[in-house]
């Protein structure tokens, strides 16, 4: 390791944040390829359903209060690969169509810092229909500085005081990845933890992710009376920590608080924040805390201080909801910074039903166990969990081999439920930067089930979308499907194509003889 000169930085101003920004700006949506940056836990259909129910409840509340005509803006911060927005909009549209209630119009605005992400969203086939319906728009937003939203598709500009309805904000895996202050509290005094960085050798030849991975932070303590002065905007939260904490390192979310205050200024009616993160809202989790470790996953992240967010906004009249039980992987909560927040009954009930009772963290914990035990569970259990997960493609991909092994004993009802699930999964599939041939897996499993028309549909789609040379197994299955559907001309063509790839393929030769009348 080489010494960087041991220059000390305020933690929120350390070069790690510029490296973080550079990483996302260089990669764009490719940052989420193969889960280099985690996204599944905060972007699957199950959490999308919960958020859609919260939004639906909030729209009901606004209509019930007589605010049914002004549009509601739903702003997602750090929308990343776009998968959460897709699932939320799909489930929300289903709810609204099913209920048929008079609700306020809404626009879901996906935002992020890199322009590459916005370009990717504009071209994504899963998002384009929502843009065409006028319910989805995009904006570049810098959480550290911006005060205005410029919407790329409609051209609208949202400035302070523009919105009549409260702003709804979604922030998943966001507050843990933007600059934070690092404070040390002891004996009623506040110290700032400055950081110096040891860089890896040849860091000038490494990419941002590699440098972030190998950086070694060292902390230095400096008395910081400025946080204790009455003029400090978050003085009351700091005073609370001075009174309650000893020998504790606290990641203080000044940037997050400033971001939410600037967003709050867009509407005179306040905001509703819905957020999920590795974040602690309980004071005891900050007691006697050690200096933080940088969690590396392509980029870096830290623990979000939900306690400070809740403490600050509750002092201003907000009501916050977090689960009574402790979270394991993902803490999901909401802050109602609204006039008479308790009157928003439908949104609060939705949180109770879809987060508190059994929520995204519970689902993910259960998924981790099932991932390790697919070879021991039955088809009914797989189907039940698949339904619970909103017919998610990832669950199907992981269980396809096990499902195949259970088909011989499957009932007619289970076969029909598998067919139904595959159809719903395909409707809710959001392709990520990494390529996976879901149509192929679906088609092959349907072939095993004897559902030849459905199988041919998916296998044909797989052939059309793949850039690779066709696989002989796929061509042979298509030949059999066509034969069973009495499309003998297509069966003959697929059989000949299969034999071009593998002239000695016995089953294809037998099929060719049968089709040729030999």
Describe this structure in words.
One of its GO terms (biological process) is methylation. TPR repeats lie at residues 472-505. The protein has helices spanning 15-27, 40-43, 45-64, 83-99, 115-123, 128-132, 208-214, 235-244, 254-264, 306-314, 345-356, 360-371, 379-388, 393-406, 412-427, 438-448, 452-465, 472-484, 488-501, 506-516; strands at residues 2-3, 9-10, 72-77, 106-112, 136-140, 149-150, 157-158, 167-172, 181-186, 189-199, 216-223, 248-252, 270-277, 279-280, 295-297, 299-301, 304-305, 319-322, 331-338. The protein is an alpha/beta fold. The chain has three domains: 40-178 and 256-359, 3-Layer(aba) Sandwich (Rossmann fold); 181-250, no CATH class; 364-516, Alpha Horseshoe (Serine Threonine Protein Phosphatase 5, Tetratricopeptide repeat). Helix 3 packs across helix 4. It is globular and about 95 Å long. The termini are far apart.
Structural class: alpha/beta
Q: In the CATH hierarchy, what is the superfamily of the largest domain?
A: Vaccinia Virus protein VP39
Mean pLDDT: 92
Q: Shape, please?
A: globular
**Proportion in helices:** 40-55%
Number of helices: 20
Brief digest:
The protein is α/β, with parallel strands linked by helices and 518 residues long.
Question: Can you tag this structure with a few keywords?
Answer:
3 domains; globular; seven-stranded mixed β-sheet; Rossmann fold; Serine Threonine Protein Phosphatase 5, Tetratricopeptide repeat; 45% helix; six-stranded antiparallel β-sheet; 518 residues; single chain; alpha/beta
């Amino acid at each position: 390791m080489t010494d960087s000169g041991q220059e000390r930085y305020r933690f929120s101003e350390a070069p790690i944040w510029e490296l973080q920004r550079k990483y996302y700006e260089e990669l764009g949506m490719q940052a989420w390829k193969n889960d280099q940056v985690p996204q599944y836990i905060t972007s699957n259909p199950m959490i999308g359903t919960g958020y859609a129910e919260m939004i639906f409840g909030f729209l009901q509340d606004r209509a019930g209060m007589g605010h049914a005509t002004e549009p509601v803006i739903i702003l997602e911060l750090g929308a990343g690969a776009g998968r959460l927005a897709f699932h939320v909009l799909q489930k929300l549209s289903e709810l609204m169509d099913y209920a048929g209630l008079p609700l306020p119009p809404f626009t879901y605005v996906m935002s992020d810092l890199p322009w590459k992400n916005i370009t990717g969203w504009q071209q994504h086939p899963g998002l384009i229909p929502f843009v065409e319906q006028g319910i989805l728009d995009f904006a570049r937003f810098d959480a550290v500085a911006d005060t205005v939203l410029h919407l790329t598709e409609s051209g609208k500009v949202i400035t302070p005081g523009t919105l009549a309805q409260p702003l709804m904000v979604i922030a998943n895996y966001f507050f843990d990845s933007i600059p934070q202050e690092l404070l040390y509290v002891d004996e009623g005094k506040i110290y700032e933890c400055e950081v110096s960085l040891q860089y890896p050798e040849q860091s000038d030849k490494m990419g941002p992710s590699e440098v972030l991975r190998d950086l070694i932070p060292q902390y230095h303590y400096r008395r910081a009376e400025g946080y204790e002065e009455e003029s400090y905007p978050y003085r009351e939260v700091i005073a609370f920590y001075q009174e309650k904490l000893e020998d504790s390192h606290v990641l203080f979310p000044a940037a997050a608080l400033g971001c939410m205050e600037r967003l709050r200024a867009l509407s005179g009616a306040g905001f509703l924040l819905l957020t999920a993160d590795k974040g602690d809202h309980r004071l005891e989790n900050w007691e006697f805390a050690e200096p933080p470790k940088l969690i590396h996953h392509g980029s870096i992240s830290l623990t979000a201080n939900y306690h400070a967010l809740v403490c600050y906004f509750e002092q201003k009249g907000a009501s916050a909801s977090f689960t009574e039980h402790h979270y394991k992987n993902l803490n999901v909560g909401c802050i109602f910074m609204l006039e008479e927040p308790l009157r928003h009954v439908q949104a609060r009930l939705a949180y109770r039903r879809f987060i508190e009772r059994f929520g995204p963290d519970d689902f993910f914990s259960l998924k981790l166990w099932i991932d390790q035990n697919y070879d021991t569970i039955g088809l009914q259990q797989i189907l039940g969990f698949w339904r619970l997960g909103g017919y998610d493609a990832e669950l199907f991909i992981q269980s396809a081999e096990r499902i195949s092994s259970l088909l011989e004993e499957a009932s007619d009802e289970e076969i029909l439920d598998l067919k139904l699930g595959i159809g719903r999964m395909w409707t809710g599939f959001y392709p990520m930067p990494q390529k996976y041939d879901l149509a192929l897996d679906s088609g092959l499993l349907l072939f095993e089930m004897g559902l030849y028309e459905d199988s041919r549909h998916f296998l044909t789609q797989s052939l059309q979308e793949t850039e690779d040379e066709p696989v002989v197994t796929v061509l042979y299955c298509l030949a059999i499907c066509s034969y069973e559907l009495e499309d003998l001309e297509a069966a003959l063509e697929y059989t000949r194509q299969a034999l071009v790839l593998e002239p000695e393929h016995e089953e294809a030769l037998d099929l060719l003889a049968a089709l040729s009348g030999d």
